[in-house]
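re the bet — no i am not wrong, look at it urself. input seq straight from the record:
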Amino acid sequence: MSKPLLLYTAGTPNGRKVSVFLEELKAIYGSKVDYDVEKIDISKNIQKEPWFIKLNPNGRIPVLVDRQRDNFAVFETAAILLYLEQHYDPERKFGFDPVEQPNEYSEMLQWMFWAHGGVGPMQGQANHFNRFAPVDVPYAKKRYTEETKRLYGVMEIRLQERDYLAGPGRGTYSAADINVFPWIRGHQFAGIESLDEWPNSKKWFDRIEARQAVQAGITVP
């Protein structure tokens, strides 16, 4: 018997955002949020094949297929997290009710979009120019590494006297944190040796990394 959800993914920060969130949901709701995994070998451009383009015209992982809802497909990681929050987290364990908690919900969206439009693209470019570019481009390496550090500094400001990015008081662990955590986890790959420059963010990172569901999610696929 197939599981309710099917995740097409790879072992990248974007892929692990979704697997971490699914593991968090599964820890609470059990088999209602169980999922199958199909590993996509991005080194062979499987994600560019016609069958995959039908799921995601942008040809990127991850893609989530909801078998419970007529095989509805969702792409873009922030959109996938918000979809899961909408349909599979009825108790709002990892989010906020947009009607009852409009300010907290907006905060969550703001920090998700900040990471989606900033940390991911900038750190991804730092990864490329530091690790994969066929020629050495010192300007690009410096440009994207420094911009990634600047964005870490933005998060550091937010986490002053807070434990998490969104929510009242010291904040509540939510999709906003999960959406950026795997990128911060990959800081060394981007050429940033440690998080010591951002002590609040380092505490935030350690707090999240210690979660059992997070440890399970980062092993997928």
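see?? The chain has a mean pLDDT of 98. told u. also The longest helix spans residues 102-132. so pay up
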